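To assess whether the prediction recovers the assembly geometry, we first specified each molecular entity separately, as shown.
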Amino acid sequence: MTTSAPAAAPPHAKPAPKRGIRRAHRGEGRLAAFLLSPTLLVLALVIGYPLVSALRESLYQRGEGLDANGFVISGEHFVGLRNYIDAFTGANGSRFWNAFGNTTFFTITTVALETVIGLAMALIMHHALRGRAFLRASILVPWAVPTAVSGLLWRWIFDANGIANNLLGQQILWSADGWPAKWAVVIADTWKTAPFIGLLTLAGLQLIPAELHEAARVDGANAWTQFRKITLPLIKPALLVAVLFRLLDVLRMFDLPYLLVGNQKYSVQTLSVLAFNEANNLHYGPASAYATLLFLYVVIVAYAFVKILGADLLAGARTRTPARRRRSATRPLAGKGTPA
Amino acid sequence: MSRTRTTWRTSRTAGLAALAVTSALILAGCSSSDTKDETSTSGGGTDRGPITFAVGKDTSGALQKQVDAWNAAHPSEKVTLNELPAAADAQLQQLQQNAQVKSTAFSVLGLDVTWTSEFAAHRWIDPIPASTSTSSLLPAAVESAKYRGTLYSVPWQTNGGLLFYRSDLLTAAGIKTPPTTWHEMQADCAKIKAQPQAKKASCYAGQFDKYEGLVVNFSEAVQSSGGHVFDTNGKPTVDTPQAKTALTWMADAFKDGTIPHEDLTYQEENGRQAFQSGKVIFMRNWPYVWDLANKTDGSSKVTGKFNVAPLPGLDSTGSSTLGGYNLAVSSFTKHKTTAHDFITYLTSDRSERANLLAASTAPTRTALYQDPALQKKFPYLAGLKKSLDTAVARPQAVRYGDVSAAIQDAVYPVLSGRTDPATALASLQDKLTQITSQP
Amino acid sequence: MTTHATDRPSRRASANHSGAAAVLRYFGVAVIVVYCLAPFFWMVVSAFRRPSDQFQLSALPRPWSTANFRAVFKPDVGFGRALLNSLVVAGIATIVTLVIGTVAAYALARLEFRFKNLVAAVIIAISMFPPISIVVPLLKLFTDIKWINTYQAMIVPSLSFALPLAVWYLTSFFRQLPAELEQAAMIDGCTRGQAFRKVILPLAAPGVFTTAIITFIAAWNDFIIALSMVNKKDMQTATVAISRFTGAYGFDQPYGTQMAAGVVVTVPLVLAVLAFQRRIVSGLTAGGLK
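The predicted structure of the complete assembly is given in tokenized form:
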């Protein structure tokens, strides 16, 4: 696919105005194809085939009827979009919308909390003078504990007679079907993955030369101004990538609701859990339909996120961006020519 | 926009490949069911060689020892133990996945009692040769190993629910025998809770979290009030007075505090924790609690202060739901004769005795329950046998996962006071009818 | 609540170095450490209880016991071998991800070619499909090509999960670095590759290193793929081995043992990252930034 991609003329591609540049680009295109091909190859092998087979599966139904002797009728039949229509309406409709709502709720709450906490972690790690190694180690711990183990850990912490209720002096039934279960998942997920955002942002912070802050300080900028005018713009690309990938992950959240609360509890059932349950009960068609709908949902959210927040985010993927143009203004060839 | 377009475009070639692969699989499916018929008719052939055994739990290492002994005696038919995860859900998932891709990785399968129908109906397991005798096995366990009257697996380990009760508190309150009915139990609780040392204790605990255990406890309540979740023809019968009585009792017990509110999150281990710390007087649980609650290392507050009895019922002693594991032979494996021989070996008197001794696993061979030496070592054995004699297997539904989910969806809201029993059972009846009736 | 308490002091601290600011800064550090380590502390404490004491709620085990750790390393569990397998899988996945991810990121960040945003979009779109839904098709595929019970059956899926993040993150990182640096190096006679290796890579070290950590841990923690693609005991990874822990009786959950195993897989990882980070970051950035 990599080799064919540059060859086909894209409908939206705009011609490069200068011939010399185009020639230079053709060479770069070849190099780019070479450099990108291993990545695309791996992705095509592992995800390409399963993706296509899931899409196909979602248009079929199989294993539903029994013959006279009680055996499941083998083979499958094409049902068109019925699995999708069933997902939105009918008996499964309420389950789908419930899972959709939960997925959305978890995404909004956990990503918001994780971004704020992760950013705070990064700033504190960056500014900490003593005990920085210890701090870094502590932040790594939640992320490093395998999800299977941390799900179990939180399950016992949130047990009716567990340490959480003991410390709170309350009798909250965290793992019963209801709002406490949602919060239990949010708390456990935030604990585990705020460090992810923290670590990725910290690396971005480390790129900022200390002189910048020094200069700003000399100019009399206060801490908040420095943060807003210097720190935030410079860590924005790293932070946005971190948040974007958290979004993608949370939208597909599976382990925590499953392990911590249970897969039959509607208050925490996410789209992934729903798809998993359907597959486990051998309803492959509906399971694939749910997975595909979830995929589309993720695509839409990611697209919106990039469009709304991420002018800089796709900087690497854009042909040219204002930021790039500004920075490489001294370069003789770049900066002109290709449209933004 | 353009992004999705490429995804599709790049996928199209892969799509052709996928189609090719899938059609190949369908073909393979047909041919494999043909070969299956051959082997099942030629049952006692010489299809021998190395096999594997996929099972979830080798809790004590006893199983590995038995496998080693088999391997020493059968050097050309060696068995490899393939341990599956401990969680039943994960085991089922692994077995289903391997069956779907017709993998030859697993030969002998350890199936939970509720899975036999699904595996048999999908032709994922072979029938057990008619030469296998089941007369010395527990009848209820044999029932769980059949699909539509044909034996598809051999009962290997079994399990029944018991009523654990605080004998010390009963004696202190002047109660001589454990309760046999729910009302007796509640009356006993009132007497016991009048005493200062048990004022804060709850009366009864079971497994009422929203998971498979809820199905078990609900079925037991229905059976114990004279009803059945499914009749002998496999038709659901939950919209009946008996089922309503059972569910109403459960809901009322939550409402009036007979069962503590937090039992809505209890699985087996939570109940054991509550019982061991002296928080409940009566508890429904499996026999495994016996050893753990009797530990003398200070972890249990009720060591030597409890005993077991059959589950209570509405008018007389109740009935338990059957747990346990059955052994089956995968349709896709090679060396099926060896596989069947190995099942016979594992379900022999000797192997089951070794399992009981090493891991307190309840045997499926009735004779072992009468063994005086074993009875001495496992004082609950007689009580367990009584429970197993009246035990009922869970419904043999091909779509058992759907059946279980439907029951959980219907019962759980009733227990937490969000629906009333009559409405819940009426819609459960419809749902179960829809799941079990075949198009 | 944590956030307000923590990020304010740090900002203030950078502005003035008064005693109050320092106190606030240490307070921020303390809050973060407690936040991250309190649940982990509970995990360690649970691991050091006797298996029969697993319901205890005391702040420290009473009595202490290493029985859970001994259970983890019981010979028939094969946990040592499982750790080694995890190390192989996660290690190779990390190295390969870094190599092919870095070059892909470089191409996206520095080269001009058509379809660039499309390629970037496809790469990230790939990581939008729910992983639980690719297990069965992947199992079919790997069964057909005889990859069951091999390392590559675990490594390649791990790669595909880690690559989108690595490519996108590193691209954003490379874009942050001024192109003039490379151009200067190329004017000095370096080839494009040399300029990248000697100038850009050292500067991007924090990003590369962070990507490595994230990738390694993600691969190390993978469960569902490792569980499905391998059914031989001597090929199982640590997370799969943990899922196979059982109590002595079946229904009893070996909670303490699982926590002990969690400690065993987490602590060396964190220590290794700390040790490596000093060396790698200091080695790469020597003479670079600051």
